[in-house]
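Chain A, query sequence.
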Amino acid sequence: MTRLSDPPSPILERFGKGWDPDTLSALAGSVPIDLGAPVERVLEQLGPALGRPEARTVLVGYGASYDTAPQDVALFGALPGWSVHVPGHPDEVGRLLRKAAAGDGSTYLRLPEQGNAEPHGASGSFEVIRLGAGGVVLAVGPTLDTVVRATARLDLTVLYASTIRPFDAVGLRTAVLAADRADVVLVEPHLAGTSAHCVAETLVNVPHRLRALGLPWDDSEPCAHGLDEAGIAATVRAFLR
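Chain A, predicted structure.
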């Protein structure tokens, strides 16, 4: 596994306050990626070894904003055998990082610039935040709190994902089949539609509708693409009419 001799200080300065020794030790075995730079350049620098299962690596992405590197999750998620985590709270980061350090495969973990108020499960399975009959909203990482507020008066199931590769097909399918309508809204804090194909594959034998929210390849603000509370609320209501 690719390792560093010391924990990457930019990550510690911005995200590492209060992290326990085990998490810091796991972080010391990771490779920091500054997502303020084009992620394609990072992939070029890391080289073709990333696509080989035997080249075990833990990459920690930090510094992404709404106008830089929205495609990072899509790119790393396309690498064979990689796990991809998008935690929504600093407490989830530690659990996911320790799990990655103890595992056998390669991992990409994207640290959130802004997160949810409370941590949630980091088991790899989608967590049921709320049950409803009118459809399913899958909120990825730091989008959860906004999604919960935006759908507060709607009869919907809300799922939370901090791990999107591997994709919890069982969790999504179970939630969709339990609802009265097989309508799915996918809300991701990165490139729009990154996990849309996973939803389609999961529900290949279930007639369904999908609306994917996220960012384009380049832009500046989440509200410009309906990722703020008002935008999500309007999109969900229009989609479920």
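Residues 1-7 have pLDDT under 50 and may be disordered. The radius of gyration is 17 Å.
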